[in-house]
Amino acid sequence: QVQLVESGGGLVQPGGSLRLSCAASGTFFSIGTMGWYRQAPGKERELVAQITKAGVTDIAVGRFTISRDNAKNTVDLQTNSLKPEDTAVYSCRASSRIKRNDRHEREFWGQGTQVTVSS
Question: Which 3 state secondary structure label does DSSP give 17?
């Protein structure tokens, strides 16, 4: 199984930045695409950014960047020029092949970290 632990959330003023980190641990054969999603109160969860093992990115919020370290199984989200509307719980997601012979990847989620943008 895969455990995902996020860190780096907190309270930041508008215009500020935060770097969110997510580390995958456990027993697995490989980690595939890793990404960040967010859910604001009263809204549906939405993709923020994701990155494949090869480094191909899909970024939904242009002010943010995503990077990963395949050796450490970590993914970071650099959030810049934060706005109050960026306030949400940010959750890490990873796909993983638990066993070498698994046909399909499974999806795992972290507990989430709160990002609050307010003056």
Answer: coil
One digit per residue, the tens of pLDDT, for the chain of length 119 reads 999 999 999 999 999 999 999 999 999 999 999 999 999 999 999 999 999 999 999 999 999 999 999 999 999 999 999 999 999 999 999 999 999 999 999 999 999 999 999 99
Q: Taking phi first (over 0 means left), then psi (-120 to 50 degrees means alpha), and beta for anything else, what does residue 73 get?
A: left
How far does CA 63 lie from the centroid of its chain? 15
Among candidate residues 20, 41, 40, 29, the one with its CA nearest the CA of residue 110: 20
CA-to-CA separations, 32 to 22, 56, 70, 84, 105, in angstroms, rounded: 14, 11, 9, 32, 8
